[in-house]
Please model this.
Amino acid sequence: MDFVLLIEQILNGVQFGIMLFLAAAGLTLVFGVMGLINLAHGSLFMIGAFAAATVAGWTGNFVLALVASLAAAAAAGALVEITILRRLYNRDHLDQVLATFALILIFSEGTRWVFGSFPLYLNVPAYLSGPVTLPGGIQYPLYRLTIIVIGLGLAFGLRLLILKTRIGMQIRAGQSDREMIAALGVNISVLYTLLFALGAGLAGLAGGLLGALQSVQVGMGEPILILAFVVIVIGGIGSVKGALVASILVGLTEKLGSVLLPSIFKLFLSTADATLMGSALASMLIYILMAAVLVWRSTGLYGAAT
Amino acid sequence: MSRETVVNLVLLGSLLIVPVYARAVDDPFLITLSTRVAIFALAGVGLNLALGLGGLVSLGHAAFFGIGGYTAGILASHALNYAPLIDGIIVINGSRSMPVIWVTTLIVSACLALLIGALSVRTTGVYFIMITLAFGQMMYYFSISWPAYGGEDGLPIAIRNEFPGLNSLDPFQFFLIAYAVLCVTIFLISRLQDSAFGLALNAVRQSARRVEMVGIATFRLRLTAFVLSGMITGLAGALFADLNRFVSPSMFSWQTSGEIMIFVILGGTARLCGPVAGAGMFIILEHLLGGISDYWLIFLGLLLLVVVLFAQGGLVSWLAGERVRRHG
Model:
């Protein structure tokens, strides 16, 4: 096992984890405050990626593309919240699952209708491409490092927003008792729409940022959605801190597992068998992690005990 | 006879009449469509046991549908290649006989359901939904990354498996096999619903705490329901593999879980023949809308939204009226 490769994979894991956090933060807040399970969150991620790819195609400006990804996803989120989701807050989870599953169908097929089935590509801008040399002489892509920095900055900003601002105070109050803060004169439906748009915008931005590392296509959101669910289950529903810790944990497990497991198996198996067993087990590793956390604490790492 | 029983008999009757008619006018495609309805309905009947009766909103039933399909595919491929499945002190060969494959499928899916259920049934509500979805996805990725049985490309079954005394290659006779399995399962479920187990399960859905106070172990009850439910959906997967003569990781995908759930909800949650109505409606819509536009899923999505927001209870409740059962 190469030490440099190991560091590189750890950084990749952190980078992937941070992106998962951006997707999971909105999901966990929306569930914590509104009690809504939103399967269509992955579609907002996809909308962000498509908006970024389109705007980058028009203007060639990457910063504008990222702004567009955030704005488009936030706008789509607010629209969906106002027209449909708001009617579902007091329904049971089955109705929410079904309605948001219907939204996935509409968003995915709608996007396929507008953009076609071929993937779009979003290029990393010239000033962010190429490697950067880290202390210790390790080469690492500058773009991925930028993603880590942006993600950590946003995580810190979200923490400030929730802990230090008036809106954050209302969000936290809504989490513990939504009837009460409505009775105290907070316009709860505006707060919900804002919060939903914020979560959607973060997911969209993650879509824009990751869009430059993978192809932008219909169906790209659902793998992220399911990983975000795993993150929320591990971190505990409603906890932003839990989502951050769990995201990094899942990101590291995902990236390190696929590198480390085959080499561990090589110690006692033939190379071909080790690669086979290792990659098969690595694909299941985060779910095994989730199962382990559940056995240990059924409400996740930072979830409130029920 | 209650009105719902009449509706159920009409539903099952029409599912039989369509292929009989199709055979008379020699339309094998219509027979295949009816077979799909019967198989999807069976998968839905399985989920309905957990979701409708037990209140367990599983979004991971594709795991059982897929494992059933792969059990059938793997056994058949070993039998066709004359390569034993396990070759050691004991030798286990593959099989091309449907009854053998079905029994194996029931055992394998019961084991998987026991494993997934033991971890997920401990939780409730939204945790349960997310965890079942995640485990379903785990099986999906495993089926992709395990190359021995085709991996991402899937596994073809060169020739449809055999059923003693019938010619399963004939579309109509294969339909009859699937239809018979569906009817027997529905009959067993109707018995189960009125048994002590069914009544207790119904009570657990409504108030787990009260049932516990009466002295019934709710965890074991729910887990049993989840395992039975997984076994039925697994059996449907085995039949689906034989229908298509092909299994692929897409049987494990979360869209499959969502579709099975749609069959249940469109038809009517906790209604005995709800999944039959739901699966029938789904296939009819797929054909009507699919003929109009390649993007028919948009319309399906809109229809689902309307059903969820404005028309609760599904098709069977609408037809049979009375007694609106609520889930959750």
The first strand of chain A starts at residue 131 and ends at 134. DSSP finds eleven helices and two strands in chain A. Chain A has one domain: 3-220. The first helix of chain A runs from residue 3 to 34.
